[in-house]
Design a protein that fits this description.
about 70 residues, mainly beta, three-stranded antiparallel sheet
């Protein structure tokens, strides 16, 4: 049941999704932007290697930037 029909409200910035050593937090969702954008931060510990196959999106663009802590 969609959140609007249950009275449940989820605030993505208040929730952190943990995937092993990674932490994901949504900053902006499609609900916040009429479906046009979603933004999230992904915290990756130093020297952590991410095994990910090459992929692409046919219906939208994706931009990734990194901020290093030296």
């Amino acid at each position: 049941m969609p959140p609007e029909t249950t009275g449940l409200h989820v605030n993505p910035p208040d929730e952190t999704i943990r995937l092993g050593p990674l932490a994901v937090r949504f900053l902006l969702t499609g609900d916040d932007s009429t479906g046009s954008v979603a933004a999230f931060e992904l915290a990756v510990p130093a020297a952590q290697h991410l095994a990910a196959p090459a992929y692409s999106h046919d219906h939208y663009e994706e931009t990734i930037y990194g901020i290093g802590d030296v």
